[in-house]
Write a structure and sequence with these properties.
Elements: E1 3-7, E2 10-14, H1 17-22, H2 27-31, H3 44-49, E3 50-54, E4 60-65, H4 66-75, H5 78-83, E5 84-87, E6 92-95, H6 100-117, E7 130-135, E8 138-144, E9 155-165, E10 172-179, E11 194-197, H7 204-216, H8 220-226, E12 227-238, E13 254-265, E14 279-286, H9 287-295, H10 301-313, H11 325-331
Parallel strand pairs: 3-6, 9-13
Antiparallel strand pairs: 1-2, 3-4, 5-6, 7-8, 9-10, 9-11, 10-14, 12-13
Amino acid sequence: MTQVVECNGKEILVRSKEDEVTNFSYLDVIEKVDVFPVNYNTSEYFRANVYMLQSHTGIGIGFVLKLVLGEIRKYGGKVVSELFDIDDGSHVMRIKPESFNTRTELMDQLCRALKVKSSLNCIKTWREEKYAVYVDHAPYILIERGLSGAFGIITYGVHVNGFFKDSATGHLRIWIPRRSASKSTWPSMLDNIVAGGIGYPCGIYETVLKECMEEASLSKDDVERNIKPVGSVSYFHHQVTFGEQKYLDEEAFITGEVEYLYDLELPPTVKPIPNDGEVEEFGLYSLQETINAIKRNEFKPNCALVMVEFLIRHGYITPENEPNYTAILSRMHRRLPFPLMR
């Protein structure tokens, strides 16, 4: 197991003999999240069973499985012809209305029809919250959050890592929550101190402040005094190995994600407290305990990626102790094929 040792008054990571024998790399963490390959269009099953969702101007904004399109046609009624121009030859679903309000209203009607009638499993994650799809950095259409995977759109969120340096030793201490056992996704796994999706019309920083209060009982004053924006990560998630996928079921949903990252260096006197039932408890982890938890796959996968990014940026994971350092940096900032918010 990778060891944390002290060198010249600083904590550093040293690869163990076990790391060398097993060829351990933090690239494994990234590959659990950024799964969808660049050459996706080489798959005959992808070409046969996936439709491109386009704006009325022909800009790609999402991937829709033929399975989902079947449900849309079966239960959408007249809304389908009002909202889409569907070309089964080229596998394109082009949105027809030129008005933001019109296309969003029709999409809402369609999603609610699916909620009532469709047997898609993703309906169970209905949130009564909208995600915005962007074209030219402006909201183009709003889609129910629970159906974002069904329409294969890029989604956005915020992730915050909370920590402090021990005043006596200078050692890193990281606030890490354990997700509630009742969560529908990734129950009881470890998370970042605060994380959440950016629902319309909330902004990025507005979402940070809201989630800090809702998930960790952190006041606006405590957050604004100590928080710092530090960048973003992007990746393309896909649940099944590419070569084995035939795109015939919901496991084949393709989700591009962008997460805006923040560091929150809290004073030792400020402690996060569970508030909204999303978190079971907050633990205070040493650097060694954090590394061990990452290697044991105890983190929700994208939260492990965010934690690896944190450890790289703070100088713990380096080219000297990580054989795939450059590949990790590249994979955490995946180029996505659709327009982005920022």
